[in-house]
Amino acid sequence: MKQPFERVVQTHGLSVLRVCRALLDEHRAQDAWSETFLSALKAYPQLDQEANVQAWLVRIAHRKAIDELRKHRPETVQAEVENGDGVHASTPAQNLENLELWQVVKTLPEKQRLVIAYRYLGGLSYAQIAEVLSGTPEAARRAAADGIKNLRSKLNEAQTPGAKR
Asked: Exposure string (b/e) for 50-66, b if CB count within 10 Å is 16 or more?
């Protein structure tokens, strides 16, 4: 028996948001997250009971993020601020904590960026990533390793005084 859709959102909402944030700025990520779950809500009744719900949602999120990129070029990273009205917004401290990492992740080649997002933010296995990206698990594993190596190199370069940018 399938879980109620509300439970699906509670269980996988954060993973989907992380995937969206790896591809988009905070505002656009929220839009893509909403669009992902609106689409998923419509299709959920027809989803096979044996389907991997997380992989299915990540695939939808990927497509919605691409739609957002197409609608809103060029992409910019923007920090939201607390508005005092109780409206959800992240604080500057929260944004600054991850801003450098997000900026570096966004400079990675597309396949490395996607694999890292799906693996480390979305929690998908390499086999699931290969299915989403139409590749092999080995290629996904290699892209993740290359992406992590690039991230480390770029972060070390950014922290080294006098480093070239």
From this structure: eeebbbbbbbbbbebbe
DSSP letters for 61-78: HHHHHHHHHHHSPSP---
By the 8 A CB rule, do 91 and 82 touch?
yes
Give rounded-to-5 percent helix, strand, coil for the chain: 70, 0, 30
Stretch among 90-94, 109-113, 131-135, 144-148 having the lowest mean pLDDT: 90-94
Q: CA torsion sign, 33 to 38 to 44 to 47?
A: negative
140, 126 contact by CB (below 8 A): yes
Cα 14 to the center of its chain, rounded Å = 10
Using CA of residue 130, residue 134, residue 139, residue 145, what is the dihedral sign? negative
Model's pTM, two decimal places?
Answer: 0.56
Q: Which two tokens stand for residue 85?
A: 């009205």
List pLDDT tens digits, range 60-90.
998 888 788 777 654 333 333 334 444 444 4
Tell me how far the alpha carbon of residue 71 is from its chain's centroid. Answer: 18
CA dihedral sign of residues 13, 16, 20, 22: positive
